[in-house]
Design goal:
Elements (H helix, E strand, L loop, with lengths): L14 H9 L4 E9 L5 E7 H17 L7 E5 L4 H13 L2 E4 L6 H10 L4 E4 L1 H9 L9 E4 L9 E2 H4 L17 E6 L9 E5 H14 L7 E4 L2 H4 L1 H5 L2 E3 L13 H11 L3 E4 L1 H14 L8 E4 L6 H8 L8 E2 L2 E3 L2 E6 L2 H12 L5 E6 L4 E5 L21 E6 L11 H7 E4 L2 E12 L5 E6 L4 E3 L2 E3 L1 H9 L4 E9 L6 E8 L8 H13 L9 E4 L15 H11 L1
Parallel strand pairs: 1-11, 3-4, 3-5, 4-8, 5-6, 6-7, 10-11, 10-12, 12-13, 13-14, 26-27
Antiparallel strand pairs: 1-2, 8-9, 15-16, 16-17, 17-22, 18-19, 19-21, 20-21, 21-22, 23-24, 25-26
Helix pairs in contact: 1-2, 2-3, 10-11, 11-12, 12-13
Length: 554
């Protein structure tokens, strides 16, 4: 990894778009489905890189006139599409700070996140502004409002008001490496949602790492099924094809629409959550379909099972791989591995309870496994590093690692470790490193079940039960309080299986439990119709909710 700017040099993520507008002006930057004709054929709208750069300039002029300046925190609640891209890069150009909150996390949690960000400007579609007016106490700091679409009973500006045409390119703000570029909120799937502070240097490092590690070239076409990742496309020089789907429900996507986008547009790269990968992969297998244009598939957001990977890999051609990078909102991507190594080597070990191999560190990022503790660690010391093979907490340091949360010193204390000017981020995940330098993920630290015989980890224990052919997925939870928790395994059966044989299945699962030293203490098995999962990827299991449910059942 080279070309790293120093912390004092000028750096603005929108410069990547400006560069693409200069070297590939007529390449499509963003493509959106807008309508269907009477035969069901899709009609698309698009902007080239030159057009997107120009549109974001128009909006940047208007935003500046409306009062936005460097550092202005700006809530952006706009659906994925052309205006979403143009506005985001306009905000970057002004030097303002977009605040991005996943609306799928639920209204009350979303409102708390927005309130915590102390926004100065609110840009959103009509329904978002209606919510702002109905719940005004969460938006006391908002001074400027811009409606994307029809303005109803509230005041403020419209998108048309701020679109100022000019023949002169907008002078991009001279932001620096350490200047705040955005505040991105975590989903809060394993605790309260927190605003992660991204600097322009963070984004720049991510773009370099992603481009280098996945060998992304300038002729690529991407299908980003997660809106936030779509914003990387213009900076990476990829055409972004906006999928026809509800981004809050990837696990319920219509496979035909995803396949249609891939086929129609010649998509070469696709990001998909494990839930979406599973749904589209099953459809392709049932219909005997292949996806020959794809050069790579990237799946993240939760552990991806080997069976899910194998199924989708069978739809790809010429040895194309499914990549499963590991990371978090606070640091991504950190580690990565491809489907060839998983299916030929690590999958069989995962089935035995070794954990899920997530691969080796990306680029020059440093990854260390440290002693497990729930307490803050103020200063880094090599004394806390564990030997290869020992299970501990995964930590990472490098140029794409975010340094702090927004106004959350207590969260900083629990998640960040200082080593001079360097920051180590505690991922909150448990795992171990093998002799080949690969990291094996074993589950979230706060999901470990602490019994009188020691602690039990979710991913290794669940793997034993997932070997049963009628099990879709399982979840280990603890009932009671540490250090005397009772381990309970929750089972979600395959949807297409008949569930009348539960007594027999339960007997077989208990026999599986006794066959492994990891699960021999598990005596309680509960069947659950459909696990609660996270909103962003529909893949992370809400074990906290399952634990409360299990406590009532047990």
């Amino acid at each position: 990894m080279n070309h790293k700017p120093d912390n004092l040099s000028s750096c603005n993520v929108s410069n990547h778009l400006k560069r693409m507008a200069e070297i590939r002006p007529h390449k499509r930057a963003v493509v959106c489905p807008v309508a269907h004709d009477k035969y069901g054929r899709v009609a698309y709208s698009h902007l080239t890189f030159q057009q997107l750069d120009r549109e974001s300039d128009y909006y940047a002029y208007g935003l500046e006139k409306a009062g936005l300046k460097q550092g202005t925190r700006t809530v952006l609640m706009v659906k994925p599409g052309i205006e979403f891209f143009a506005l985001t890069f306009a905000i970057f150009k002004v030097g303002a700070v977009p605040v991005v909150v996943d609306p799928g996390m639920g209204i009350s949690r979303m409102l708390r996140c927005l309130e915590e960000s102390h926004p100065n400007t609110f840009i959103g579609i009509p329904i978002a502004h209606a919510l702002r007016k109905l719940r005004p106490k969460y938006f006391k700091t908002v001074k400027t409002c811009i409606t994307v679409g029809r303005r109803w009973f509230w005041g403020g500006l419209t998108l048309k008001d701020i679109r100022h045409k000019s023949n002169k390119p907008y002078n991009i703000a001279k932001t620096r490496q350490n200047d705040t570029a955005a505040i991105l909120f975590t989903t809060g799937s394993t605790g309260p949602a927190k605003g992660v502070v991204y600097t322009h240097g963070t984004f720049d490092a991510q773009i370099r790492h992603i481009k280098f590690h996945f060998n992304i070239t300038s002729d690529e076409i991407d299908l980003p099924t997660f809106p936030l990742f779509a914003l990387f496309d213009p900076a990476l020089g990829m055409t972004a094809i906006i999928p026809d789907m509800d981004p809050a429900k990837p696990g319920f996507v219509n496979p035909e629409k995803i396949i249609e986008s891939i086929m129609n547009q010649g998509v070469t790269n696709m990001f998909a959550s494990p839930a979406l990968l599973n749904r589209v992969g099953r459809y392709c297998k049932d219909k005997g379909l292949t996806l020959p244009s794809l050069k790579r598939v990237i799946s993240a957001g939760a552990p991806v099972s080997p069976s899910n990977i194998k199924r989708f890999a069978s739809t790809l051609c010429n040895g194309i791989e499914v990549h499963t990078p590991y990371g978090a909102t606070e640091a991504m991507p950190v580690i990565s591995i491809g489907s060839y190594e998983i299916l030929s080597e690590t999958a069989k070990l995962s089935k035995k309870g070794y954990g899920i191999c997530v691969g080796r560190p990306v680029g020059d990022l440093e990854v260390r496994i440290i002693e497990i503790t729930d307490n803050p660690i103020k200063e880094w010391s090599d004394d806390i590093i564990l030997q290869d093979g020992d299970t501990g907490e995964i930590t990472v340091s490098g140029d794409l690692v975010t340094r702090q949360y927004f106004r959350k010193p207590e969260a900083d204390a629990l998640s960040k470790i200082k080593e001079g000017n360097k920051i180590w981020h505690r991922m909150g995940d448990l795992g171990w490193m093998d002799k080949k330098g690969r990291i094996w993920f074993c589950g979230r630290k706060n999901h470990r079940v602490i019994t009188k015989n020691g602690f039990m980890l979710t991913i290794p224990c669940e793997a034993i039960f997932n070997n049963h052919p009628m099990v879709f997925r399982s979840a280990l939870v603890g009932v009671g309080y540490p250090p005397n928790q009772k381990p309970v395994i929750c089972i979600e059966l395959e949807q297409y299986r008949k569930q009348k044989r539960k007594k027999l299945i339960k007997k077989e699962l208990l026999e599986l439990a006794k066959s492994s030293v990891l699960t021999k203490d598990i005596e309680s098995i509960l069947f659950h119709k459909a696990f609660p999962v996270d909103i962003r990827h529909n893949s992370k299991i809400f074990r906290e909710k399952l634990a409360k449910w299990a406590e009532k059942k047990v």
